[in-house]
């Protein structure tokens, strides 16, 4: 229907629908739509959408920092530990950034597959890193759990394994939870724990600066690892969509 000016009028139902859509994709920080994947836009653009570019800058520089520190020193078996673990955190960041902006059924379907695949790769990298350090300790009769970094590393690996198993089964075998509806009802808890795992892994990376290997060999600086880890969170946290964590949009009425 056209108005007196000749411009088609929008029905109230259309405005209401658009408003609901905007509120349902409203990020924790920013305007509605700032962290939402647009229709027809390739999935890879989710990686730098909104503040995502800050997260990419932080995680890429963090990995470069670690790899440069390792590769400029004499390489030993233990060198594979920080290389594998840093790649795992990089992969997990991509996993989160890919899925975060999805909101339509088709976007979520594709995003969940990429998310699950990247999570599996990240877990295998973490297992590789843990395997290297365990072999090194056993071969050299080294002490286990003698640093905060060691405790955090094991805790992170266990939590990530549980996170992956729950997420994968909710998606692939919802019958385990009593049906698809029940499985979907606990997605928000999976998301909460996912962000917790990311923070835990970044804290684990930062805690590595206090290990003997870093003090004697790598010499990574606390301020650098901490700053870049915070930059990752500054890029990811504002893009969290409120409704995906269970926050209901206000009514139009």
From TrEMBL:
Known cofactor(s): heme b
Domain Cytochrome b561: 45-243
Keywords, alphabetical: Electron transport, Heme, Iron, Membrane, Metal-binding, Transmembrane, Transmembrane helix, Transport
One of the Pfam families matching this protein, by short name: Cytochrom_B561
GO molecular function: metal ion binding; transmembrane monodehydroascorbate reductase activity
Listed Basic and acidic residues bias regions: 8-26
UniProt cross-references to InterPro entries, sorted A to Z: CYB561D1/2, Cyt_b561/ferric_Rdtase_TM
Region (Disordered): 1-37
Main location: membrane
SMART domains on file: B561
Lipid bilayer topology: Multi-pass membrane protein
Name used for this protein in its record: Cytochrome b561 domain-containing protein
Subcellular location: Membrane
Native organism: Cylindrodendrum hubeiense
Domain of life: Eukaryota
Family annotation (CDD domains): Cyt_b561_CYB561D2_like
Gene Ontology terms: cellular component: membrane
Spans through the membrane: 47-70, 76-97, 118-136, 148-171, 192-209, 221-240
């Amino acid at each position: 229907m056209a108005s007196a000016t000749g411009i088609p009028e929008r029905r109230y139902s259309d405005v209401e629908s658009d408003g609901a859509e905007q509120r349902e994709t409203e990020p924790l920080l920013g305007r509605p739509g700032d962290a939402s994947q647009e229709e027809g836009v390739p999935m890879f653009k989710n990686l730098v959408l909104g503040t995502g570019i800050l997260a990419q800058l932080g995680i890429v520089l963090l990995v470069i920092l670690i790899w440069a520190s390792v590769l400029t020193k004499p390489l030993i078996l233990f060198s594979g530990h920080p290389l594998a673990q840093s790649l795992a955190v990089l992969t997990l960041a991509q996993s989160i950034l890919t899925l975060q902006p999805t909101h339509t059924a088709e976007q979520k379907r594709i995003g969940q597959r990429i998310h699950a695949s990247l999570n599996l790769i990240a877990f295998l990298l973490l297992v590789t890193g843990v395997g290297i350090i365990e072999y090194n300790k056993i071969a050299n009769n080294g002490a286990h759990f003698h640093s905060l970094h060691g405790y955090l590393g094991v805790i992170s690996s266990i939590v990530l394994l549980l996170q992956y198993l729950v997420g994968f089964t909710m998606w692939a075998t919802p019958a385990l939870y009593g049906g698809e509806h029940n499985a979907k009802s606990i997605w928000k808890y999976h998301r909460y724990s996912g962000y917790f795992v990311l923070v835990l892994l970044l804290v684990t990376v930062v805690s590595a600066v206090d290990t003997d290997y870093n003090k004697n060999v790598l010499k990574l600086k606390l301020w650098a690892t901490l700053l870049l880890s915070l930059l990752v969170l500054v890029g990811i946290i504002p893009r969290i969509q409120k409704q995906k964590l269970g926050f209901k949009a206000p009514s139009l009425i």
